[in-house]
């Protein structure tokens, strides 16, 4: 059954590469645009859909989780193969897009951390009001 997780990854990867190629053609570039990222999103959505509809056996889920965890190092290895010098010579667009991506990630992470802290503080505050034995020093 674990092999079905690998098959699901392969289907998502092939669809992602195909969609990335179509996106590249639509943008007028001769390269794949985001195919690996699209494949990862397809894998996540397929896994969530199958879990929701109880069509994902435990062993298949283990295969999907394994390849989902392995996918990130594969993406990093693929990105390391790109020619960074040529990208920087091509103009400041590569540098600006990299800075924008880092900024967006930092903002999203900060927002997630703030919402988690607020949720934790409201949960602990509601516990204090529900339990008269707890004091403000706890």
From TrEMBL:
* Name this protein carries in UniProt: Malonate transporter subunit MadL
Question: What Gene Ontology cellular-component terms does the record carry?
Answer: membrane
The organism's superkingdom is given as: Bacteria
List membrane-spanning regions: 34-50, 62-81, 93-112
Say if the entry is tagged with keyword Protein biosynthesis: no
InterPro entries documented for this protein = Maln_transptMadL (IPR004690)
Q: Does the keyword DNA damage apply?
A: no
Q: Name one Pfam family in it.
A: MadL
Q: What are the protein's UniProt keywords?
A: Membrane, Transmembrane, Transmembrane helix
Organism, by scientific name, is: Variovorax gossypii
């Amino acid at each position: 059954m674990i092999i079905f997780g690998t098959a699901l990854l392969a289907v998502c990867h092939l669809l992602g590469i195909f969609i990335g190629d179509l996106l590249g053609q639509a943008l007028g570039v001769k390269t794949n645009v985001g195919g690996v990222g699209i494949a990862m999103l397809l894998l996540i959505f397929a896994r969530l859909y199958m879990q929701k509809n109880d069509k994902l056996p435990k062993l298949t889920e283990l295969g999907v989780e394994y390849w989902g965890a392995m996918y990130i190092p594969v993406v990093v290895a693929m990105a390391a193969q790109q020619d960074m010098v040529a990208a920087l010579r091509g103009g400041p667009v590569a540098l600006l897009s990299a800075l924008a991506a880092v900024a967006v990630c930092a903002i999203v992470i900060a927002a997630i951390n703030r919402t988690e802290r607020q949720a934790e503080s409201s949960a602990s505050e509601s516990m204090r009001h529900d339990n008269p034995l707890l004091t403000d020093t706890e």
